[in-house]
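Quick question: what would this complex look like in 3D?
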Amino acid sequence: MAAIGTRVLSVLLFLSLSNLASSLYEDQVGLMDWHQKYIGKVKHAVFHTQKAGRKRVVVSTEQNVIASLDLRHGDIYWRHVLGADDAIDGIDIALGKYVITLSSGGSILRAWNLPDGQLVWESILKGSNPSKIMLIVPTSFRVDRENLIFAFAGGCLHAVSSIDGEIIWRKDFAAKSLEVQQVIQAPAEETVRVLGYVESSQFHAYEINPRKGDEIKHVNVDFPGGLSADTVLVSDDVLVALDATRSVLLTILFQDGEINFRKTQILSLVDDSHGVVEILPCKLADMFALKTNKFLVLAKVMDGGVVELVEKIKEAAALSDAVSLSESQQAIALARHENQKLHIIMKPVHDWNIDLLKETIKIDNQRGLVHKVFINNYVRTDRSYGFRALIVMEDHSLLLIQQGEIVWCREDGLASVIDVTTSELPVEKDGVSVSKVEQSLFEWLKGHILKLKGTLMLASAEDVAAIQNMRLKSSEKSKMTRDHNGFRKLLIVLTGSGKVFALHTGDGRIVWSLLVQSLRKSEKCDYPTGLRIYPWQVPHHHAMDENPSVLVVGRCGPSDDAPGLLSFIDAYKGEELDSLVPIHSIVQVIPLPFTDSTEQRLHLLVDANQRAHLYPRSPKALTIFRSEISNIYWYSVEADNGIIRGHVSKGSCSHDEDEYCFDPKDLWSVVLPAETEKIVASETHKINEVVHTQAKAIADQDVMYKYISKNLLFLATTAPKGSGEIGSATPEESWLVVYLIDTITGRILHRMTHQGSQAPVHAVFSENWVVYHYFNLRAHRYEMSVVEIYDQSRADNKDVLKLVVGKHNLTSPVSSYSRPEVTAKSQSYFFTHSVKAITVTSTAKGITSKQLLIGTIGDQVLALDKRYLDPRRTVNPTQAEKEEGMIPLTDSLPIIPQSYVTHALKVEGLRGIVTVPAKLESTTLVFTYGVDLFFTRLAPSRTYDSLTEDFSYALLLITIAALIVAIFVTWIWSERKDLQEKWR
Amino acid sequence: MEGEKLWRILTAVAVLLLAAASHHHRAGAFQSDELLIEQEDDLGAAIGGAGVGVGVGVGVDPVTPPRSRKRYSDAAESDSKFQFPLEHAFGDSDFSPAGTFSARLKTWSHGPQTLTKLRFSRNALTEVDKEKFQKLLQDDDFYRIRLPSNVLSPPGRDYIVSSIKARCLPRDGLDEHFVIHMDGVNILAVNYGPPGACPYPRQLKLPAKWSFNSHTILKNSEQAPRTPVFAEEISLGENGEAEVVKPPEKSFWAKYWMYVIPLGLIVMNAVTQAMNMPPEEQAGGQPQGAAPAQRGPAAVRRR
């Protein structure tokens, strides 16, 4: 045991000496990092304003977030991000103090405490088969009642006590083969009604005793025409449904145990209806809304089920649910666009001609159309009714509108970042006015004197606060010009809504945003989605007068062979320069290492048939490409088939006249046996990675040569059984095979099997090493492995004499066709966390040592020094190896709390980490995205090439001045003393 | 011929002795004999050229476990000979047969099948092929080969294709090198190319001899090194302690020479100064008897 103690001690000692963790002090938080919290696109909103000191709205979003927002400012009171597979189906407020959520396909019912968001109770609902999901929370609670919540999911109706989540009773409707459409609890009545179809031709209505769950009444009627699943409840006893052909409206009345129905032809409502008719799922009280491909139709159900047309709306519009103003009065909000203005109209249900409120708001063009409206009423100071509207826009932003003004707005589109690229800021131009300099000079002096006070411990508490404030809000970091160190950049972010944002790295503010027109739904493109964003044009020669631009790649539809789309955006102005919609399908985008005369980067877009298309489509680009065509190779991974193929261009496409299209020729293929291997991960180098040196000096003055080829592919496969959830396979029937494949020739350079291990695999590839993370079933733990690959063909270049004489092959070009002489070294370590994303720091010249950035399951980013993942680590390193900085071998990788890059913050729903080199070699910029955004600056080997920002120049100057004064004073003194000596 | 025969017998005896020594349970004489014949076969293939005037080199990757162990470990194994084709194409032409691989398939009672004794015989190039190859060399185009992905039921799911720029192959003859990556009876990939480097830019060079010199290696997957588990800490710890004691092996001089030499110099300096002082003060009155003592300081002074 003593031995273990000494080993641990020695490792700790080593750590403390080398200080691998680059932690920061409390007062440095926020200096170079920023964190933004988002919630995502709102699906549901419930207001809580009555009798509440703090007015709030509780929302659930498409990013599986539930949040309570401040209605005054839009801030988040509390928020919970549920798991990726825990989608929220319904929310409501019960008992005035609990937020009830139904999630995971109706299987989990939870109650959260409204003021602080604590989980109060959780119940698992077991259903038998998939069905509609409904959550019914009675609006009025009485003390004497049991206060039941009804949740319908999985074909079963559950009655759950809202106080402790106990399931009181459960009634299975799936066993009766009933497709339940609606469940109602009328406030006035003591029963719960369940309405549904059997084999879509019989309508059934059940009345159930809410206390015990027993059936009170059951009636049914046949519909020979058949019914569709589109239904809406108009009132407590009227249901509107579409028949199977979607051309006839059925109004079904079920009163006093009888069912009556009435048919209305849709053509009689809308004379020229075309396309598929849908009923909108809005609760409009005696009304309902139909959507055709041209109109939004509002209709009212009169007594006896007669349907009457109320209004046809041509423009894009959105409807809210009805809110009740008084016992008899209910109102609906209608938001419609007209000439780039948004009109919000409140109308009472009983009289459509009156406008309770009409407000016109000028809205930013970049927000697109209104997607959802939620309405809340309040009593004004003059006792009339006022309304506030919560609006969800096309770009997923959330706006609160009250009294004709936008009270606040949240850019929640940023919760669904898809891809990130960066752009340099404009170069600073001459002509700064003198007064500005003087002012800044004064500020500068003041600031430094304050800092000096701080250093000399003379500062009062106020001064300290002022210093901290000054540091945080330094205008230096949020300037709109390029800086010497390359810390200031634009992060250009593509989001799921099709909006592109440019964020400033200094403070995270939005510089511009653009709702890309070609990424909006149009006739040419039905379901456009953004895929990737690439730097398109980076001007170096004309940096003063030309703007850089970015390329957005997307596709119309979910499948690989859907037509693609391209959009080119100016990175400074945020304007769409050009777009191509629709084009050939896009499965792969290859930025080539060539630029044309206007510094546009050549890109090769590979379509679903493996044909390559060259962009930009200019003759100059074509000439450049043609001259390099024999050295351009690409590969495709068919993950489902387990086949990897390499291609080269054969020449222009044979089938059409397009000279920018090139046919592929298969050069090589790797076929993995389908019964034993399934591809789970593949990883390549970053395109823009810089490697400083090929040689690696190791202990005893020896040197090893890294095998640095940009054309390496890391591939991980598992047994088909092992590709499922962890624990679904036994260690004997699961294995993980890793490959390093040269993508030019298809050679397998290294192949290795990890027995008893399984997916998920996350990998990162850099220089000559790859690090991957997987689960070890035998050890019941996660593991990380490293493979380093070294070039043996250059190993005999160590002889100095040979180097002098020139008999070395260091300058000869490397060809992939030579037989590779490589050795691979590998080692594995245990790692405590499961991993969401993994990447590596990158610096401008690649000199600085590297850190792995690991997005942990706790939504934080951990920086782990690459030296921990060195395959040459041994239990007892020799003296020479210790000097080299080798860490003694341990079986697991340490997690040092100070090395969390995100310090105390969480990047909820973490999905990706991007690293960008700064101009300063020691520093790298890290951007982490998920539901939240986080940005910081890292220096893996400390900032060895610059002084820290809070370095006190004033102190230095004063010290020098004081020294000079002291020299003079002592000189005079000594002169005097000399004189006195001589006079003596 | 006589010498070769003798050599064969000698090797056979040596192998027999080795096999006998490595196994505790004594095998029957007949079985050992069988092993002999096969070993002999292998040697023959490796030394002499077989087939139609084509040099064939066969190697088995050292990763595959030693043969003799397999031989005795499992009684239920079966062993069958079979062949699979190699096809080639010149540039964009269609594939045509180029040679055959023959190997033995071993089936073990517990499931897995492994290939051993892979041999390759290439067909001689026809005149048409030569012309095509020359054209490839002129155009710096690709010479492509393919193998079935399953050796038992060719072509399996798909062919394994590999290509090389034709200009990489010619040396004296046409030198080629195969590394076939196997998993049981499946071929995953083949690394195909010249046995050495292929310098860029590729020079046009016609081979002196229009025949292939083939080298073949079979490769199976390596096992990843196990994660180190420090369970036997105590024994390791003892080792550790032993190594802690190790450093004092260095001699005193080796460790502290850098301190000792300056110290010595200082002392000597001081001594000389101390020695010099008296003679200067008591100028001539120095007795001659101290000659040996003065020799040293005199030498120092000269420095």
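Answer marked as accepted. The longest strand of chain B covers residues 78-90.
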